């Protein structure tokens, strides 16, 4: 293989609302944490164990504005992007490092409000990946994608 590949695909729940940062010239970025879970059974204790991994996500410009408008803490989202590491100097002079997922594509899967509404009105709980709520971005002509 002649080339390399830096691609990430995640399905998880937002750990917080999208935090926006605006720059001169009209550009902006949105940042939010995404939690992915691994569930397994401890063979020795027969106990169900959930391991959560946190990912720092970054979306830019129009995509950031769409995420800020339609997503909130607890919502489930599918994202594709690439891993990017960066460093900066903190106010105390120390060098800080972080690894982020720069999102290139995303799909809203469920919102916390929709799932809570289904549980309350229909007494239903989503089961695995088969549950898919309507896209909160409707009507279709409202978004640029």
From TrEMBL:
- Superkingdom is Bacteria
| The keyword DNA-binding appears for this protein | yes
Q: Where is this region: Disordered?
A: 119-145
> Does the keyword Ligase feature in the UniProt annotation?
no
Keyword terms of this UniProt record: DNA-binding
Entries under SUPFAM superfamilies matching the protein: Nucleic acid-binding proteins
A Gene Ontology MF term for this entry? DNA binding
The record's NCBIfam families line, in alphabetical order, gives:
ssb
Assembly, per entry? Homotetramer.
Protein known as: Single-stranded DNA-binding protein
Lineage of the organism = Bacteria, Pseudomonadati, Bacteroidota, Flavobacteriia, Flavobacteriales
């Amino acid at each position: 293989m002649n080339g390399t590949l830096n691609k990430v695909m995640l399905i998880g729940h937002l750990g917080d609302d999208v935090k926006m940062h605006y720059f001169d010239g009209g550009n902006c970025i949105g940042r939010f944490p995404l939690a992915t879970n691994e569930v397994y059974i401890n063979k020795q204790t027969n106990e169900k164990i959930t391991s959560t991994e946190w990912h720092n996500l970054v979306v830019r410009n129009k995509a950031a504005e769409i995420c800020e408008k339609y997503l909130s803490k607890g919502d489930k989202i599918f994202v594709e992007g690439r891993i990017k590491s960066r460093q900066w100097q903190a106010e105390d002079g120390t060098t800080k490092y972080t690894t982020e997922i720069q999102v290139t594509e995303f799909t809203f899967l469920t919102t916390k409000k929709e799932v809570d509404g289904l549980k309350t009105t229909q007494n239903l709980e989503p089961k695995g990946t088969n549950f898919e709520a309507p896209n909160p971005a409707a009507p279709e002509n409202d978004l640029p994608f």
